Amino acid sequence: MRAHATAHTHPSPSDTPAPAAPAPAAGGAVRWICPMDPEVVSDGPGDCPVCGMALEPEMPTSDVESPELADMTRRLKVATALGLPVLVLAMSDMVPGQPLQHAVSPWLLTLVQALLATPVVAWAGAPFFRRAWASLVNRSPNMFTLIGLGVAAAWLYSAVALVVAALRPDLVPDVYRGHGGAPLVYFEAAAVITALALLGQVLELKARSRTSSAIRALLDLSPKTARRIEAEGREVDVPVEHVAAGDRLRVRPGERVPVDGTIEDGTSWIDESMITGEPIPVEKTPGSAVTGGTVNGAGGFVMAAERVGEGTTLARIVRLVAEAQRSRAAIQQLADRVSAWFVPAVVAASFVTFALWMVLGPEPRFVHALASAIAVVIIACPCALGLATPLSIMVATGRGALSGVLVKNADALERLAAVDVLVIDKTGTLTEGRPAVAALEAVAPFTKDEVVRLAAALERASEHPLGAAIVAAAGAGPLPLVSEFRSVTGRGVAGRVSGHDVLVGSLRFLEEAGVETSALVALATAHQEEGRTAVTVAIDGRPAGLVAVADPIKASAAAALAALRADGIEIVLLTGDARRSAAAVAKTLGISRYEAEVLPEEKGAVVERLRAEGRVVAMAGDGVNDAPALARADVGIAMGTGTDVAIESAAVTLLNGDLAGLVRARRLGRATMRNIRQNLAWAFGYNLLGVPLAAGLLYPFFGVLLSPMVAGAAMSLSSVSVIVNSLRLRKLEL
């Protein structure tokens, strides 16, 4: 989300106030989505017609508390303040000697209960009745249907019984009267059930708020203002949402980078831990890319804005996490199928319970029948069932985001837990993707330092990607000047350096120039067997040495792949590089199966072939050429350091490109599915056991009848158990 702030300036002679500028047009009206049923979308706030939950903005905000949570908390406080006295008065006849019953008229006690319980039901419980009515109108019965029916039945029976007993006492049999002739009522059940239902809602809303803490933490990384350099050179502070691509911005020491862009002037060290997870700052010089939300160190610099608003890396991460938290796993379909018939079945069971008690139960039959029917409706409220999967997904995706594992949807988490083969690209995924000098060789009388400095002087004028690696290997000192430079495409470069004729390139290039290369052949072959590129050097017509260049394997690759193999995942290396290079990397990392010289379209075919064998395939890659395979895999995993196309094609993104993220993603997927199964087992088991008990199963054997209050407490306990279990994922060690 874009942050909003008032433009301000720092008191400096060169500063002038920013001109008033209209807020940028919204990209579209705010849409509201149900947190439990993301297919329900509305143009404004309201309640979900399917589950009754309050709709939430499609894009999260940095607000700490939602209006719904504040409203439900107020209602809970009122329900508790008024409901506790009702409960105490109702239970007073259980006190030995019944002192309160003898001191105060039972009729007065019952009337006080009615006066206190009525605002609890009518005001504090109003959202439940509103949502219950909407569920009936929309023919989508849900948990609010059951709460509304139970509370309404308890209060209406009690109110009618009180009025009839007062006006026409002859119509109320003695079996329906308590101490002092006052009627038996359930005002305490109506009040306590309402309070417990509100408690469940508050706990659930707080849990959902905690699951969004990862998003809020990301949103808080974005600065509210940026210091823009105007065309005439003056500097003004403007709201970050007013920054446009191409604007020149000054970032001072200690400030957060406002948007994504490139440094034009200045040098600094930037803390990129929000992206990489690494606390060590990274040096940035002119031409270096910087990411919005990262923290500038001691140096100041001027940057050109490139990606702004919702196009920044930070905004994209927030959007993807929000979408993932609303997505539904396939396992949720089981809960959906059960919920579709569950509420009607519970209502039917309630009517059957009432009828059986009226026919078979002891006196007072009607009171027993009503109490049992209400208890069945309340205890069977499917709150826990509805929370079992979505809450785990919300917590897990937030936990993953804070660990550098960005999961786009719930299905990816479910499939990650089942993956048994990982197809992985080489360049940029297993390797750094940036060539570096791996070794230097010199042939007497030349030295390694002489070889690399003369070669670097030539390569500095070259555009070949390996040239940059050789220049970097020469160090930061000045290089000698080059004259008579010439480049032979596909062969190498030549020129005069410090009075010497120097050739840098392939063995064939040197041989074509008449250089005797026998002293270099064995050296070159040895390095090529290791998967390195041998760049040979000749000085004044004599073989001088070679520079072995390779794409270094990531430091985390060996340990990550070993952990995945130990977890039962087969590793398949897939690359478009030469077979010799692929074999060297596979040997180093202990990969027994690899395919080299594979074209981009063939990568997708390899993935499809594995899937046809019944394997659950994850594909990890970083380039445009990996996108087809990423899209075809059961789980596509992109390196966050890779191309936008690869990231968009994948279901999981490792933000810092660290392969240890593969292990974290696997652990996250398994832990999430385990958590969801635990939640579903508890929710189903609770209802299977609770409904028969509420219907009176224990009464024939022990004379125990479950009161509606106890049923309400059990309902809340089931939801709290699911919430607490889901929140354990926040502490998951990845």
Overview of this structure, please?
The chain is of the alpha+beta class. It is built from 27 helices and 25 strands. Strand 21, helix 21 and strand 22 form a beta-alpha-beta unit. About 50% of the residues lie in helices and about 15% in strands. Helix 13 runs antiparallel to helix 25. The longest helix has about 35 residues. The strands form five sheets. Strands 13-25-24-23-14-21-22 form a seven-stranded mixed β-sheet, with helices on both faces. The chain folds into five domains: about 150 residues, no CATH class; about 90 residues, Calcium-transporting ATPase, cytoplasmic transduction domain A (Distorted Sandwich), CATH 2.70.150.10; about 150 residues, no CATH class; about 130 residues, HAD superfamily/HAD-like (Rossmann fold, 3-Layer(aba) Sandwich); about 120 residues, 3-Layer(aba) Sandwich (Calcium-transporting ATPase, cytoplasmic domain N). The protein starts with about 30 loop residues before the first strand and ends in a 7-residue tail after the last helix.
Please describe the structure with a list of short key phrases separated by commas or semicolons.
single chain, Calcium-transporting ATPase, cytoplasmic transduction domain A, 5 domains, 7-stranded mixed sheet, 27 helices, 25 strands, 48% helix, disordered N terminus
Overall tally of structural domains: 5
What percentage of amino acids are in beta strands? 15-25%
Residue-averaged pLDDT, rounded? 80
Stretches where pLDDT is under 50 for at least 5 consecutive residues are 1-28
Q: Helix content range of the residues, please?
A: 40-55%
Q: Tally the helices.
A: 27
**How many strand units?**
25
What kind of sheet is the major sheet? Answer: 7 strands, mixed
